[in-house]
Each structure stands twice: as C-alpha cells, then as structure tokens.
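Changelog-adjacent note: as of this version, every example in the card shows the full chain rather than a window. The one below runs 405 residues end to end.
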Amino acid sequence: MNHYMNGKTILFYGIPAYGHIHSNLYLTKRLCEKGFRIIYYSLPPFREVIEGNGCEYRPYPLGHSAFDPTDGEKLLKLYRLLLHYTQEMLPKLLNQAGKEAPRALIFDSLALWGRAAGQLLQIPSFAFYSIAAVDWQSGKGLAAYAAGFSRGFLRYAAEVSPALKLRRQLKTSYGLKKLGLLPVLMNKGDYNLCGFSREFQPGGRGFGPEYLFLGPLSVHRTVTEKNAFACPRKPFYYISLGTIFNRNQQLLEAVIEQLGSRPGETTPMVILIWDRTKDKMPVSFPENFIVRPFVNQNEILKHASLFITAGGVNSIHEALYFQVPCLLCPQQGEQFLNARQFQRLGFGKILQNPKHLRREAAACMELKTQWNEQKRKKLTAVTLEQTLTLFHETTADNTLERTIS
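Full-length structure tokens:
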C-alpha cells in the first residue's frame, strides 16, 4: 500500500541554500522515522544530504542556473524573484502534488510557492523559519529585523515595477492574497515552525500558539560532508562567512595579515572557508592556514577555540552547542539581528574594527570564562514531540484543529 493511502505523504518546498536546508533536515529525519513519507523539493547539489536524512529528493521544475533566491540583502530583488519563481513553478508543482495526494505540506518561510500550493490544495501547511520570524499582525520582531536592512534598500527600486506586474498576474491567475513585500519575504502557514529557541527570537514571548519554537536543529541532522584533513590538535580559529556573504575582501586581508604566522611567535592554526576558484586575483595564504571551500562544520566546531562567522542562525547555534565563542561579522540584515541577539545573550561579540581583529578575537574568547551555562543549554535544547504529535493529528483526518483565535 502506498504512503498516501495511510495519510503519510508530506511535501516539503525548500530553499536551495545550505543554511536553509540544514536547519530543517533533523525535523524531516524525525518525521521519516515516525513513518511519514517526505518528498523534499530542492536542487541537485543538495540531493545527497536530503536523501541522507530520509527524504525523497525531487528537483524543482527550474534549471539550477535559473534559480537563485539567495540575494537576501537586496530585498526588492529577492521579492521580485520569489514572485517570479512562484509564477514559473506553481502550475507544475500543483500538477505533481495532485498525483501524490499529500495530506500536509511544509515550506520554507521564503518559499511563496509552497504557501500558495497549500492554500490552493486546501491542505494543512507548516511554514519553517530558518531565520528570525516576524509576526506581521502584532509587529513582534519587526523593528529588530527591519533595522538591519535599511541601508541601501532603495538601490533596487527598479525591481518594484516588474514585481507589481508579477503580483497582479498571480492574483488574477490563482486568486492569491497577501502578496505584499513583508508577507512574501516571511510566508506564514497554519503553523509556523521555528528552528531556534523562543529565547533567541526577538519578542519571542509575544508570539502566539501558531508559532512552535523547536530549538536549533542543524547540529542533529545526518551529516554527509567529509573533511579531507585532520583537525589540528592545538588551539585553532575557525572562520566561515557563509555560503552567500563571503566576499568581504577587506576582512580577508585583515585575517591574513593579523592571524597569519609570525616569526618568533606562537600563532594558532586557522581553518578558513573560502572558495579559491572564485577569486578574481590569486590569494596567498599563510602557512598556518587550512583553506577549503566547504567542511563538515560540526566536526570542526568540536575542536575550535573561536568561530569567526557572519552570524547565520545555524552557525551560531552550532557554535553554542559545542561551547565555542563567536566573533561576529554580519554582512546583511538578518545577520545583524542575529549578531546583536548573540552579543546581548553573552555568547559572542560583534567585530568593531577589522584592523584590531587579533585583539578583538582574544577578548571574544574570554567570554567562555563568564557566560551563563544554564542559559546556553536552554538556547540549544531541541523539543520536537509536540510538533511530531501535531503532524500525526493533522494527517490523521486531514483537518487542522486550530488553536488560533
């Protein structure tokens, strides 16, 4: 008997970027272990890790080169792209969904096409937030989120006209509503699953019962990446500015100059995530640097003394899980929000001046001697039982018991 006859098929519409995918794979893994069939939409580079966590991989009906919803600092451009991808993919996605007869679906909070599919199929839908959430009705978290995106916002004003045209077309073709900038950038489902703790969420205590805070999940996923080198036995710094915002040349120069080995001094090893194939000019790294385009981050963080990071939700919580202080170098709005939260909580410091990188790194490592261990454990705790029960109840009779007033 196929899965959907038992009400066990769930469609997952992901965002093809490591941070987004890694944040939710432990949830899909647990759902698969409970007997659900998860069909996970993404792109070929992520097939291995998706299947490694128990899901069935399915490619989006767009070519890899045509799909790039990752320019998060250019909000107006991202807004237009999300509308465009929805218009392009929705007919094929709806056709495929009709053949699978899913009883529920999950979509990344950026995946407008997922929210649209749930509404048009009239089945229970769950949004997954890998970034800090905003409750548009109450305004909870809005100020904290918007502050980091204010700089350069109007630089992409030319995106407004084509975005409005796409919005009209989607409304006419499908009757879709809530297609303004804010609802499209943070799509809501019947329930909203947050891959972090309520304590980390700005204004977290004010979010209603439709928001479930699961805790940071990425550290618990099945890891398929392997390191082609052994971690240093002596203290080392780990530096990763993410898969998107990693082209800060000034910071790279400061890292090489200040953290490189010096004659007569004991200098820590440095593991640096950097794709050398994309360098416009060849970069020469010091002898104490191990440079790779990608690593098994959890394995590295088990042994690191300091993590220099852009401040993605997954990365800082993985560091917190392994008790590694973070020197934060945010590059865009969401990362600025995360960095401020992490600094306020006492587990990291925001880099003030790249010219003083060495000094600020040393000060950051001192945080570990004074941080609140009970708070650290609370921020890294994962609670999935309520959510797993909710999925069972939802798919049992294809109705969603709403606790939302």
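Structural remarks: DSSP finds 14 helices and 13 strands in the chain.
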